Amino acid sequence: MSKGVKCLLMIGPMLFGFVMSLTTPVVQIYFIKHVDPSIFAISGVLATGLAAAVQSITSNEKMRLKICRWFYWILVFDCIAFTVISFAGLESVTTRFIGIAILSAVSVNLWMVIMKDSLNNILSGAALTDFQSLSTASYLWANLVGGILSVILINRITIDLAIGAQCIANAFCAVSDWMAYKKINSSIEVIIGRAR
Fold first, then answer.
1. Single pTM value for the model
2. How far is CA 143 from CA 17, 50, 147, in A?
3. Structural contact between residues 177 and 118, judged by C-beta atoms closer than 8 angstroms
4. Where are the domains of the chain?
5. Measuring CA to CA, which residue among 75, 91, 89, 97 is closest to residue 171?
6. pLDDT confidence of 191, banded at 50, 70, 90?
7. By percentage, how much of the chain surpasses pLDDT 70?
């Protein structure tokens, strides 16, 4: 794997993790005060059920290949839907909880499955484990820094700023993953071309 692809695969999740750790306390405190317990419970059940269905569907390689053709549109949909749901949630907490439950169960799950599949096409064995460990460590360090800053800045971050930052981080992560995905697939096509 090239350094460029490795950087793209790591920078998006790192930024997303940093921003989520920085802003999630503000967002959770704001919304948990306004949500009905039954809506909170329903959103959890909905997210789990839909995630189980998506994972069952994507356990088939042929289905994953079909879904990969729609990856760009899955990312676009996720970014737009996340932004709309996040800001609509300021007016309707139910919209936020149900919308985010559906979104995380469906588009985020598809997004992650496609990225894992793509990574599995270029890495295996110890190299895959090494990259996954490095990627996870980087993500966790970014989360730690974001968490420390959230303790310092908690009273200075407004709900609008927190949601806006989360939407921008989500879009940045989508763009970096899309670029990495395209680079990985083009390198696979070159290798296959050489083998012929």
1. 0.88
2. 5, 27, 6
3. no
4. 3-113+142-195
5. 75
6. very low
7. 95
